[in-house]
Design goal:
With 134 residues, the protein is α+β, with helices and mostly antiparallel strands. Helices cover 16% and strands 45% of the residues.
Length: 134
Amino acid sequence: MINRIRTLIGNRRYAARRKAEISCSIAVLEPHGRLKTVARQTPIMGRTRDLNASHISMRVPAIRIGSRYLTAPDSRLLITLDLPGGTIGFEGLTQRYDQLELDGNEKSYFLAVKIRQISESDRARYLDYLRTLK
């Protein structure tokens, strides 16, 4: 019954999503490391699909960096967004992922990430950016 009501009037448990396609990079943080402690790796570059105050979704070409999976339950991600006013970074956790169907041999994945830890200044810049989106 509750799911039917949510379907009819909209699910209001989450903040409104805003469509935005901006560049992002994803690296896997070392276990038990600080926010800036990144394993020696080349980050994966991707593009966001939509954003809200607590989550982002993005399209990435791989779900693994070296031997580390972005989708593992214990994987803490360092995500950098290239906003129009400059770059921000935060720690995130993958909530879900799907392989996207593409033409040919090209692979791509959808990641939904929860923002876990972000500095106050980056959060303020991020929320200001969200307000500019329709």
